Amino acid sequence: MTDTAKVWRHRTGEIRLDRTRVMGILNVTPDSFSDGGRYLDADQALRHGLEMVEHGADLLDVGGESTRPGSDPVSADEEWRRVGPVIRDLVAKLDVPLSVDTMKPEVAAKAIEAGASIVNDVSGLREPAMVQVVARSGVGAVVMHMLGNPKTMQTHPEYADVVGEVHSFLTERIRVLEAAGVASDAVAVDPGVGFGKAQGHNLALLQHLDRIVALGHPVVVGVSRKSFIERLGGGEPDERLSGSIAAATLAVAKGAHVVRVHDVRETVRAMRVADAVLRGEKL
Question: Which end of the chain is less enclosed by CB atoms within 10 A, N or C?
Answer without folding.
Answer: C
